[in-house]
Amino acid sequence: MRHPRDIDLPLTVDRTSGVPLGEQLVRQVRDLVARGVLRPGDPLPSSRALAARLGTSRGTVTAAWDVLTGEGYLVADRGATRITPSLHLDREPAPATTTPPSRTLPAPVRTTPRRSLSVPPPSQTTPPRATPHDRTSTPRLATPPARPGDARHAGSAATPPGTPLPSVTTVGGARVLDLRPGTGPVTALDTPAWRGAWRDAAGATARGETPGASLQEHLSAYLRLSRGIVRAPEDILVTAGVRDGLQLVLRVLGLARRRTLRVAVENPGYPALRRVVEAAGHTALPVTVDHHGLDPAALPTGCWGGASRWDVSAPPDVLVLTPGHQYPLGGTMPVSRRAELLAWAREHGAVVIEDDYDSELRHTGQPLPALGALDTARDTVVTLGSFAKVLGSSVGVGHLVAPDPLLPELIRARADLGSPVSRVAQDAIARFMDAGEFQRHTARMRRSFRRRRSLVSDALADLPGVVVVPMAGGAHAVVEVPDEDAAVARARERGVLVSGLGEYWTGRARPAGRTQAASSSGGGLVLGLTARDEDLARGAAVLREVLGGIPGGGGQRAGAPTRDAR
Description:
By secondary structure, the protein is α/β, with parallel strands linked by helices. It is built from 15 helices and 19 strands. The chain is 32% helix and 14% strand.
């Protein structure tokens, strides 16, 4: 990590606490060092960048850095501040801190001994973990057939890396502006650094040269510094995206438990994940979410008995969640609910699969620790990630971090089935990260999506009955409208394609009536923010005219047919 100013450490401040803000930062850095999240030689963000993100003065951050420097934790190195390279701690790592110092929650109490995830012992001694070379030398793992518009977790490289998708397309012979999520260009990634990374990777492979630092090594450092997940490079599996990782986990769990799995999915949620569950032969259980994400009290067949007691006859085997940025509603699951979900999963032997699809794109507020970081026992959470939102869906590369009981069987399955990602692709992205270009590009994307979200909000701000749902980041926007079907149809007539929020629901009709939570609104539109600024501005102008002509108060028809997304 050569470019510290773009590092996004899990640091927060609590202005309601009696602890000075600078002291909070000092305590948190000490804790990150003690837990191994920050290691000797790791760079820290610049004082200016961190102060801007936290909303504090630069002097507050500088004073905290000065204290830590005096204690020997930090050292100035060629204009950057780093963890002292010679730092050595002779103590056991401290428990994870999940909230600012004044609000630290106790870790969930383990009521049962450490358990196995029902993975039967192999018939022979488990082979050594596959190396990056081993995982790229076997045939490609089959993935579900691509569907039109399925670009958020795309697992194939249908177009050359960095090729922008046009915002303007042709439907039925007419030219239309496509603002549906996943259909526009993520970015113009045709840069010298991007082309050079692929050229050098291809050349090194052709010459039979051994690559430098592997993609797993870069991912290990990235997950540790940005998400608080501490894992060795050999514990990280490279995938073709989130859908590929999900089907691999379901395959291993299904074989282990020798039955059809009950998989809880968010409702509304991303339809492609539900289709992966069903294609794998398992049962998808839609669970309604609120503006904080999935609530344990809403889990199928479960009822809250009070006094920390659950009465459940047949709980889900797997929970598939987007806690960092619920898709599509955009809410963030609070730490207290995350701890409750982990406690519930441990109590009922369930595996939690965290779809951390766009954590890099949070541009307001303070990041919360990933579920995988809160799983300090490393026995419950699978974290899936993807480069699709930052580098584009055509890259087709992601990662998987699994709990210890599942990891050996996942590595074995990946080795048996073969890696779906070529060595060239892995090496190219590793080179892109090694040069610091990934960090710089991610920072540009955050600024771009923040600007485009403001563009949509400003265009629709004063329309009666229309609300642009606040979100802390991401590459899409949700707009609450009084009549979803009318808005989608009239926008299409004007040559602008948008998705209706109803497309993301399944199992039952969406609740009628408007509330603060977008999931309970009368209807809504989902817009991708990947189009060019001029295209997005033109589409927002059309939507303003369309929505201004729709009478307020009319919600989506009860019992309207559920559509599949994009």
